[in-house]
Amino acid sequence: MRVDHDRACMAPETELVLYELPGCPYCRRVKNTLDELDVAYGSKIVPSAHDERSEVEAISGQTAVPVLVDPANNVEGMAESTEIVAYLEATYGPAE
Hints:
The protein is α+β, with helices and mostly antiparallel strands. The protein has 3 helices and 4 strands.
């Protein structure tokens, strides 16, 4: 289930949250995976200037995006799109 990604996130405490920047190809890769897996998530658009991303830095220890938070699985700031995609596929993908 998708949420409106054009507005600031008001996600429930159990919903995934993706910190992203419009036009970011790494963010797009994660969003495509979330959509393909039909995983509900909220979107938080971050400022384009790295020095204005204090919330992202507090969560993940760095200022790059994407960053994923998954409260249901105690994920508190996963960075790197390849790691996020692998996590999503392992956690929310079809059972083998």
